[in-house]
Write a structure and sequence with these properties.
Largest sheet: 5 strands, antiparallel
Structural class: alpha+beta
Shape: globular
Mean pLDDT: 74
Low-confidence stretches: 1-10, 36-69
Radius of gyration: 31 Å
Distance between the termini: 89 Å
CATH architecture of the domain at 76-199 and 234-304: Roll
Strand content: 15-25%
């Protein structure tokens, strides 16, 4: 009976001890969770402040602020005096349109929209050669797909570069040179995202995004080998690319801004029809060439900025 009483008494004691242990474990776990959350929140706040600080440091200075700070590009005042109708915003818009058309050319293979706003010498620059080569590759791929469309099972081996997103930054006018001809440089950053559907897609994307030539060639070699081994085994990968560039726009010395040119990009000067797309190069109704809103300015080069 005494043993039974002791056993009966020890049962509630053990239950109480177990409950107390559970409560202590819950309290300890709560403190650990609270500390972890506090550390995480501190890391998020620190990262957010650092990112905000970096963004503020990279944020382009507006023209009004640049004038107050005395940071206006040399030669801009002289250009305004020589051309009272000159508007910097037109060239900032031209830079954004140029990057959009570069994205369209490298994605679809159609260089006609970008061709209308560049000089002939642009295609001899490294950037121009790159755009032309990438556009040519897209056209060849489209031609091969069209040629193979009627063959049995050929659809399994088709390749696509599907444009998904394009994101530019706010452009900034950086320099003005009036020595031989009028030249204005605009700095802009832009990026793009594409989906790649082809055999060896992952290796191809790695080669396109490689930091050096050797790694690029190695990855592209793997992509070619993968396609040679099984040209019907399609894969899907993503290619994100971009950079920061100085776009140089030129026009003849002594050229003047036509105030009415800015309206010529919205509707046809010949028949009055409205253009339906930024990619349109002529009027869909009368086939008249489309004028540029920035007049005689043409993109002459694009140099990467480190």
């Amino acid at each position: 009976m005494v043993a039974a009483g002791l056993a009966a008494a020890s049962g509630p004691a053990r239950a109480g001890a177990s409950a107390l242990a559970i409560v202590e474990a819950v309290i300890i776990a709560s403190w650990i969770l609270l500390i972890a959350v506090s550390l995480l929140m501190g890391a998020i706040v620190y990262t957010s402040r650092s990112a905000s600080r970096r963004r503020s440091q990279r944020r382009p200075v507006t023209f009004a602020a640049a004038r107050r700070l005395g940071r206006e590009p040399a030669g801009l005042g002289q250009l305004r005096q020589a051309d009272p109708n000159f508007d910097e915003q037109l060239l900032l818009d031209a830079a954004l349109v140029a990057t959009l058309l570069v994205f369209a050319a490298t994605s679809t293979g159609d260089i006609r929209p970008i061709r209308r706003m560049v000089t002939d010498s642009f295609w001899d620059t490294p950037f121009g050669k790159l755009i032309r080569t990438m556009a040519r590759d897209r056209r060849r791929e489209s031609a091969e797909q069209a040629k193979d469309a009627g063959r049995a099972g050929s659809g399994r081996g088709r390749r696509w570069n599907i444009p998904l997103d394009y994101y530019p930054s706010v452009p900034e006018l950086t320099s003005v040179d009036l020595s031989a001809q009028q030249r204005v440089s605009v700095r802009v950053s832009f990026g793009q995202l594409q989906a790649i559907v082809r055999p060896g897609a992952a290796e191809f994307a790695a080669g396109a995004a490689a930091p050096n030539f050797a790694m690029a060639m190695a990855s592209i070699g793997k992509a070619v080998a993968a396609e040679a081994n099984d040209r019907y085994a399609r894969q899907v990968s993503w290619l994100a690319s971009g950079g920061r560039y100085d776009l140089s726009f030129v026009r003849p010395a002594g050229a003047q801004t036509d105030p009415s040119a800015v309206l010529a990009d919205r509707s046809c000067r010949t028949c009055g029809a409205t253009y339906g797309s930024e990619l349109a190069i002529s009027c869909a109704h009368c086939q008249a060439p489309r004028a540029l809103p920035w007049g005689d300015w043409r993109l002459a080069s694009a140099l990467p900025v480190r």
